[in-house]
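Appendix B. Chain record.
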Amino acid sequence: MTERPHPHVLVVEDEALLLFTIADELRDAGFTVYEASNADEAIQQLETRKRIDIMFTDIDMPGSMDGLRLSAAVRDRWPPVKIIVTSGKRNPGPEALPEGGVFMPKPYVPERLTATINDMLG
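Structure tokens predicted for this chain:
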């Protein structure tokens, strides 16, 4: 039985301390992590990386689009990428999320995020 390769996660968060904290927690859990502080950086990462399995994005971000619009764009251009959306201010209904997307309210427990990622990737 071969071991599953480490999942590659793109974390999109405009608050630097949160971005670094989430990225470190996911790396400690065994994930390969890429970081972006806004939607434009996230799109650039998706265009240049050979592999991103899942995107974890905040909703409220400055720049050309928020996390919900980013999620819709990712679903259209990169359908295999799984999507988790988070916010401490908003609670979007299922209709606002891309197909197969999951919402996780802030604050969240790192172990819950790790478990959600593992569940989504099978």
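Further analysis of this model is presented in Appendix C.
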